[in-house]
Amino acid sequence: MCNLSAFLCPVLTPFMRKGTNMKILWINNDGGGFADHIDVEEGVTVSTLFTERLPDSRAEDYLIRVNRMLASADQVLQEGDRVSMTPTKIEGARLIA
Amino acid sequence: MLTTKELVRAADHLRSVMTVEPRRAHHNERQALLRWKSSEQGLRVARRRLRKAQSHGLALIQSQLKADVRCQLESVRDAVNDLMGHLTAEPRESPSLSFLVAELRQLEEEFSSLKVHWSEKWLGVSTESIRLRDVYLGPFSIRLFWSRLERSKDVHAFDVVALDPNPADSNESVTHPHVCDEQLCPGRASLPLANALVQGRIADAFCLIRSVLTHYNSESPHVSLDAWSGRECHDCCGSLPGDSYYCEDCGYDYCADCTTNCAKCEATSCRDCLTGCFVCQERYCSNCVTLTSSQHRCCAACIEPCARCKKPFAKTELSPRKRYCADCGRRRPKKETLQSEDHDEQTSGALETAEA
Description:
The structure holds two protein chains of two kinds. Chain A has helices at residues 4-17, 46-53; strands at 21-28, 34-41, 62-66, 69-70, 82-87. By secondary structure, chain A is α+β, with helices and mostly antiparallel strands. Chain B is an alpha+beta fold. Chain B is elongated.
């Protein structure tokens, strides 16, 4: 007798698990700087996360690293990943004495 | 490339200065408070300069001064947000040794040039050669002095050293529009840089500095790139055309808008080197005004010696008839005193005779 649940589980699991949140460490070095764990949807990609978190910015203006390494835009994030986004163009100043 | 042993040793030095204690947390909070106060002071100075330029009608420099005010406002806002963060934050754990080793490995990957100077106690990386708006600035060495991290986890822990310097013609200390005396003014990167250092994210801190170096903020440079290879007005910092003006008092170069002439000798002078006469309010160079005994500066036409003590005073300070200064006007000379006593005696004698 076949194990129906064992058969169905890998089929149904993606549907059952879609929409489930997972935690990642997100480091945003823009503005005041932000580094904390956030909840994101399972299966989210680097580019999706960027669009959600920095909607008014362009990805090409940022240094994006996942677990301290270069990442492609379509890389799917995993539970516990460390994602950092650092602007490559920041306005310096001169000291007002 | 550093060996694992060197990486661990460097990470250990960093960890020793990054250990967060309650006293250190209080220190960080205090640093945030001082940054807020400093940014407010910067805002006050910027506003004062703008008001001064507006009152003197200096149109050319106003746009730059307004940009300074905006920049300082943003600094105040960021500093307040940072201070709020410190006041509401939960106690943070110190970064572990393995965390810091990973940070240094990432730093090596980002820059390919990580170097540690053990005797001078810094670790540093080199950037690519930087060129902004066709001005060659060369590569820079970004150096983190770990001993400075104990005092301040911000940009002051870093030196930014030009490796092939092409400084501004007007100021050799400025090797980059946002670097003076090897100190970076991080502008919008101040807060994320400080937060990165507090949390031990060393690689992020270096990347933030590189992001400032590779970008030009034309609204707030030490020296603008337009004036990099030429002279600039010492007052408004605008670039000087061929026919600039030279202040004969201070010796600096100025544009036409920032100079004027002495009302007497017509020598060219900047606004700061001219003095207004206490009486007539005309502006004169230092050679054409005299300091009076009452410590006022007056032109030759408005100065007059006291008729009694002969000391120089502004003519409006002397009495109208006798032309005495205030001190001499209060004193009566001996001869006059005796004469007035004789006169009184004569008068009283005459009265007695008349009564008799």
